[in-house]
Amino acid sequence: MTALVLRRLLVAIPTMFFVIAAAFFLMRAAPGGPFDSERQLAPEIEQRVKAAYDLDKPVTVQFGLYLQKIVTGDLGPSLKYKDKSVADIIAEGLPTSAVIGLTSMIVALGLGVALGVAAALRQNMPQDYVVMGLALIGVCVPPLVMGPLLSLVFGVQLAWLPTSGLSRDQYSFRHLLLPVITLALPQIAIISRLMRASMIEAMRSNAVRTARAKGVPEAGVVWRHALPVAILPIVSYLGPAIAGVLTGSFVIESVFQLPGLGRQFITGALTRDYTLVMGVVILYAGLILLLNLLADLLYRALDPRVRT
Amino acid sequence: MSAEDAPILIAPPGEIAAPANEQIPAPVKGRSLWDDAARRLKRNPAAMISLVVLGVLVLLALLGPLLWVHNVDTIYRDRVAIAPTWANAHWFGTDAQGRDMVARVLFGLGISLMVGVVATFVSLVIGVLWGATAGYLGGWVDNVMMRIVDVIYTVPFIFFVIILMVTFGSNIFLIFVAIGAVEWLTMARIVRGQAITLKHKEFIEAARASGASSWRIITRHIAPNVLGAVIVYATLNIPVVILAESFLSFLGLGVQEPLTSLGQLISGGSKYMDRAPWLLIWPGATMFVTLLCLNFLGDGLRDALDPKER
Amino acid sequence: MMMRRLLPAIMSLLFGAMTIASCGEAKLGIDYENKIIDIGNTAEPLTLDPAKTSGHWENNINGNMFIGLFTEDAESNTIPGMAERWETSADGLTWTFFLRQANWSDGVPVTAYDFEYEYRRVMNPDTIAEYAAILYPFKNAQAVKEGKMPLTALGVHAIDERTLEIQLEHPAPYLPGILKHSTAYPTPKHVVERWGDDWIKPQYIVVNGPYTLVKWWSNYVVHLRKNPLFYDAASVCLRELFFYPTNDVDAATRRVESGELAWNTAFPGQKQELLEKSLPGYVRVSPFMLTTFLSINLKRPMFQDVRVRRALSMAVDREFIAREIYKKGYTPAYQLVPAGMPNYPKGARLTWADEAMDKRRAEARSLLEAAGYGPKKPLKFTFSFRNSSDNPRIAVVVQDDWRKIAPWVQIELRPTEVQIHYANMRGKDFDIGDGGWVGDFADATTYLYLMETSTGPQNWPGYSNPVYDKLMDEANAELDLAKRAEIMRQAEQTVLDDSPIIPLAVGATQNLISPRITGFKDNIEDNHRARWMCIKE
Question: pTM above 0.80?
């Protein structure tokens, strides 16, 4: 266990280096710079500005300087947002991303597992077809359609829920409901399909047959014998699910006008805010590494075959 | 191989049962395997209907733009954003610049399918070769190659797709490569697992005994034998790519004028959903049917090629 | 069996939480009791520091926080702000301002030294002030900004606490219009000196305008609250303002429709008719000082022939573009300077503007044929356009227009990201490229200077005509406003005849604002300060 954690941490260092280097050099290779816009800076002024951010030095030197900085935990100033540092912006954006991301994951896991189990226990019955049909729709309707659609129906036409944003500067349940549902929907679909398949398999396993033969009540069979085994593929799906939620949140934050990091990243990339882009990449890469490790540990804790 | 080398994190949607593919028999029994599979597939109505519908869609995408009465880029200045009508054969209406939507949907469908197929093909080539090599050679080569996959796996790829698009400008070729470059990792893991089980089979031993080179064994014997898993993965991967392209289009980084794709049409149409809903409905429906069929077909193929799941 | 128990449980939990959560929730959009409104403001401010702001959307916010020597009324007419009265020397080169008695929001008096300090800060070569050039009419300003002269050489001097003297390079009758621009706002010397660039943060900021900054949540909301020490605080009605960066104009429109926003500073043009029905009294459209136009790169050999440029300009169907593609009140442009500019009553106009499209197309064809193009020698070029907002939609229409001249006019479309696009335009790496220009202040020179040789890379077509440059110099030196207008009209006609640009449309302000908000007046600068607004029951 400790060995696994240690090994993962060792792999994490080259991974992070690879990520940082790739993002850094790719961004610098992008045409245009942070100070190009409709209005032009006088050449003398542009020169001074670039010097202030070390942008006048060779890229490799800039990379060295940047590495030195981030090792000390300094993500630098934003090149576009003149009044804020990258750390400021991340601190302001992370809570929203975390709230909608985590809530969607929890909702997706809860509903996905429940629906999958329900469908499996009613295999090839109408309930099964309904659930799997809905799941297919969930997979096939992209969030960028689902989001505006929900917002239009529930926000404008029925006027039950706010269309977007938060409650001024406060989080509110009603404001987060539609974004979370939109973000969770594709994951609910995938998880319920996975869960159904593995549950069907588990219900046919020898362990379950033995339990039944011993006269264990059906509910007990499901809860104590089938579920613990059937849940494993879901645990191993956690990694891709996190990535999926992350990707989805880019769209959701735009559609519902939420102050998350995904939007910041995209605007940052489009406007060549190098430091902001790097800051977000580093944060997310670190988070994904960590979450993957946690998912691995969870898997080992649950899977009797790996437990030692 | 220790347990923690097991690819526990990959599990692409629908491919959880991958280890079960071990049961794909060696090519000695190859013909009967494919015959069996075909028979099983034919008994699956959803998959068969999907196959037919997909065939029709592909034909439409290929021939439609040539045969349809309207050109994809003709602007009808007196018929801007009109609703679907039989008059003048604007069955799907016209878009906000007065271009015929049937023509645009057919054209967009073609581009989307092309993006899906080519990106998947790119990921297959890289993935199959990488996975087969690692699995067949084993030992430290395998270890190093799969560690590299692990490392790249933890990279948040969405960032890189976006940065790549920004760096090289959004041209359609790059969309293929960027998406393909993201997707090959899963393929490599699946194929490696297959290769490991295959390499101890008699016919591989026989080939090795007769002095065939590793390269030859990988390309001639291992790669063809993981075909089943590859086909299933590819079928299920195309919809993923099509969705990814629509995501990029939404961010303004996807296919650009004068080209268009279903994703581009949808993300444009979603802006008009309350004033000209046909701009969203038709491309949306086309994409939905396409993705649905690909998913059904993929599921059907998996069931057909994997006897255990019957 | 599980579902049957689970579903109702989940549902009741959800709805229970919904009811609990919805109690005590803020009243969004318009809060009549507390005089709070929510405003959709198109984009996230990159900075609120007056010295550094460049965007209109930034000024929409900090225009409520600071008052310059001059300021604007509800219709954006220039009115005295911190200046109580002023005197101008006979040669129009020295202006002396006498300040009113007023305090910063921390109680410290606003003095002429604050202005002097701020103008030097703007002109400091180390300050990233994108708009510094707007103050270049100040004596020695450009040289100071470029580091060629010391800060003290700048033609701005505080005579005493309440008297400020500004010297100019050339007479500028439009100076008051410049002095109400955000770059010319004063900043509190005592606060900026203490906190440096951080002075603008909510915890340190001090203002002299009607509202002060309470919170700035990146990419989400800027919260302003009424400043009780503002000199005209008694007449300020609204107590709190929330500004949201509503990049997605469709989502923002939904928020107005559902009452979550009282006002959004834009709406999708394609939706205008629908909104006029669904939200009666909300849609406000009026002329705006924005011209969209295509630039023709004069460095390209084929475009050095004026016949080719004129032909391409004639073939563009501006009526269709304005009416069907832009919509939202845009009008076809046959000129560079939008109509309605103060002190510029009658602008120039493309000579062939009133001819029918068919005739223009035929004429364009014969012009190109006269220039030697035809089936054997096709005219080939690329059209670069910004891949954002309406621009790709315009591009395909313009391409179609050009194709209609003759089959041997071949256009390749090149979509480009906004940032790269403008860099390419300045680097003259384009054949024909799109673009637009929003005036910095309400005066024709803010457009006409674009075509001067001395403008450099920002002169996108690379246009250089000694006649034009001479006319512009004359206009700058002219004190008589009527004569000045006539000289500028001649200059504009010169550039239109030479056709280095293809004007497309004149923009419009598009506001979607609840009729319950009073004191909102349409104006050409699209400036709407909250101090003039109030809420109807």
Answer: yes
